[in-house]
Amino acid sequence: YTVIENHQDRRYVMRIAKKTLWKLLLDICMLSLLVLMYQKRVISMRFHEVGGLVLFALFLLHNALNWKWVKAVSARVFQRSLSLRSRVCWLIDALLFLAMAATVIT
User: Fold this and answer.
1) Residues 6+ apart with CB under 8 A from 82
2) pLDDT tens across 54-67, in order?
3) Which pTM does this prediction carry?
């Protein structure tokens, strides 16, 4: 572990940690909503429909919070310098976006 002595560095780390926590909470909310939506007969069809729209909005928010990463990786996705893991994550994100958009449209 590295000891952070500079107050500015400490604030930066705390800001990043807070942002990461918000992203994690957002992901947990999206997962919970997705699980609830699979129970459409238990809750109601109306909840299933509205929940789908809310899930899409949360998905857009998730992508907006990670936009710097999406933009940076998208610019380098076809370059050899980008790691395989980043390419696979980018491809999964792109396919999930298309699937979510198609689901909302239909």
Assistant:
1) 73, 76
2) 988 998 899 898 89
3) 0.69
